[in-house]
Amino acid sequence: MTDIALKAGKAPRVRRGALTHGRGLAGLVLVGVVVAAGLLAPLLTPYTPQQQIPGANLLGASGGHPFGTDEVNRDVFTRVLHGVRVDLAVCLLAVPFGALLGGLAGLLAGRSGIADVFTQRAFDVVLAFPPVILGIAVTAVLGPGVLPVVCVVIAAEVPLFGRLVRTATLKVRELPYVDAAETMGASRTWVLRKHVVPNILDAVIVQLALSASVAVFIVSAMNFIGIGVRPPAPSLGGVLADAMGQLGSNNLYAVGPLLVIVVLVLGFQLIAQALLASRRGGAR
Amino acid sequence: MKLSLSRRTLLSGAIAGTVLLGLPACSSAVGQQGSGEVEKGGTFTGGISTDLVPANFFTNSNAGVTTVIGLTYESLVSYPVDRLEPKPKLAESWTVSPDGRTVTLRLRDDVKFHTGRPFTSQDVAFSLRTYADPKWNGQLKSTAQAIESIGTDQPHTAVLKLKHPLGNLFDLLEIVPIVDEKTFSGVGDGSRYVGTGPFKFEKWTPNARLRFVKNPDYWVPERPYLDAVDISVVTDATALTNRLRSGQIDYAYGIGYHDIERLEKTGRFGKIQLAGAENQIYVGTNVTAEGLSDVRVRKAIAHALDRDRIIAEVFRGSGYPADLPWPKTSPAYDAKLNTTYRRDLAKAKALLADYGKKVPTLTYSYASPVPQYEATAQIVQANLKEIGIEVKLEPLDPPTFVAQLIGGKFKGLWTTYHSWAQYTPSTLTVSAYPFNALKNTSHYSSPAYTKNAEAAWKQTKGDSAEAKQAYAALSRDLLDGLFLIEIGIVEQRWAVSDKVKGVGYTKRSELVLTDARLTG
User: Fold this and answer.
1) Do B378 and A73 touch (CB under 8 A)?
2) Looking at the complex, does the CB of residue B379 fall below 8 Å from at least one CB of chain A?
3) What pTM does this model have?
4) What is the dihedral of CA B74, B80, B84, B88, to 10 degrees?
5) Domains in chain B, ordered, with CATH?
6) Quick check: is A11 in a domain?
7) Strand partners, B47
8) Residue among B238, B378, B393 minimizing CB distance to A247
9) Is some CB atom of chain A closer than 8 A to the CB atom of B239?
10) CATH number at residue A214
11) Which of A226, A231, A245 sits opposite B378 (nearest CB)?
12) Using one digit for the tens of pLDDT, what is the confidence trace for B157-211?
């Protein structure tokens, strides 16, 4: 569909209102609820994420502790809400940065043959590693913590955005009005700025939403296997990992963070699908 | 007719009776679960959470090694799990010279290795010399190295000449498995384990299973009852629990304390509490680190720890708080000294005030993912925050942690288990990495501690009054120097189904199935 639109001389656009109805709205609500819960965490719970409550060892779900308490007497609900903050902060930092780096690499690849070959092979190498395996390798070098998680999310996003921007750039540059502009003496930089970037922006926005869902998954997986956020700081994957040994004591200990991860991934996926459908011409 | 029995006759009779009954004294016949009809034969299936590491054969460091040694090998003597009284095993009897420097062991003459070769004094010499080789990292290698010579002139008598008296010699004789020189090369790569024990090693499939079959020529009559033993390696504790729960295995080593409690509640499973084979959970300190180099800071930390909570919540009450490493079964145990550093935040703060400087943020290392260490570290972190000491947690993968433990590379604090305090106290202070007076993980050195550790080690009798005085001096050194802050004594737990009975263990937590049977 994108190809057809480009051949007609016009890049498809995300329609206004793509997120005001249907799955777009559903996705927005899901993500919004989780983000709001994370931001308002101190108001929603009387505990701090590292507060050890005397005597509250592995309690089941109750009004005071909606997801129960953990093995060191902390309120799981509180840790999940604060874990949302950590996970989203990583995503909001790493995904746009990965998109920026990937986009620049894609634009560069579209400018010269040598740069194209170099960036394409570099993308091939990065894509050859599943993100979690890449995370283990990066952690071996940098040590565990937030930094390797951010690096892995960026590394996972750069090839995706790079390839997207490169392809779109090559196609836009073949359009008649771009060709005409270059014939009239417009510089490559001017063409990129005036014609290429505006035309690929919508595709990047769709990819951003899709990448956010992937990033939530990567961050959670890395924290789950213990190479991400350091304890006692909370993270969704970290809380889930701690819960695995206590499934017999309190089911909501595991279900709580898992539910939040599912909602976030699903929400971003729905937003991406709605934006994509909107670009393609109105599918709901 | 008057029947007269001398003390020696009675003792000999008791020993002979024990042997005839086939109840090797090293193991405790616990795990009397099972209400069905007891059967002979069958395959015992179990699961362990850590695989065999051939290079650690003499280090007693994981469940794979202790399973192989417990089933396949035997030692010269054995201790009952609850006391330090050597009982005959491969050595029938022994004498110790008055100066404590010559020990003559009379060996059984009816024992064969699994290859069919008879066991002789040459095997005693080979086993003890191999254990003394630094290559194998045996914790008691300094004690083994203190054996000057081993006389093997007679095939069933071994004469040990010692460089000096060794109060913990029988610990060594209880710990060292008697190995077969002819096949010992197979131990290094895990391909062959030949001993004299009740089961013959059949196969090790790395990261998957260990398989053993009955030794039909075992020297104890009518033992073992089982035909075979099949041990799976299941590294995930939840998966191990599920295997037990679903009936795929009947024994599990590596299940969490909470899970064992839940299994017990079903009525189909029981636990084996490894009393007498205790571990100690502790906070180690690098005494060269800023802040920790001052004993007042270390004492403040000791007063801040909530030991009762850690034992109750993390270890589900399977143990007791302690300030010293000695368990209640140890000749060095002193209930009063053991509460020297009870939780007292005011005292801790006063000690820090006396120190007068801000304690820098301390790095606190532990092996991950091990739920007990992680929970302990987080509670300790919260305890120290209460007295104004900030702690940064540093989870390490187990190989890195062990390397730092052995190499003394920890930046500040660390937490793990130590063992060996269930033996003669001098074994701990001349052997275990964290405590070794000459070189320890904390970089602690004290002429008094070194002297007292040496004095305790060189006692003629490990349980004499003089020895106990030496242990008391050691205890005071440990409390005053406080390079290692004990949290508590922990008794590990195994889970077993009600289909097995007679599962036993040694003081080194080795699995003993000599008397184990399956129920119908």
Assistant:
1) no
2) yes
3) 0.83
4) -50
5) 1-73+197-276+493-520 (3.40.190.10), 77-189 (3.90.76.10), 279-490 (3.10.105.10)
6) no
7) B232, B252
8) B238
9) no
10) 1.10.3720.10
11) A231
12) 999 999 999 999 999 999 999 999 999 999 999 999 999 999 999 999 999 999 9
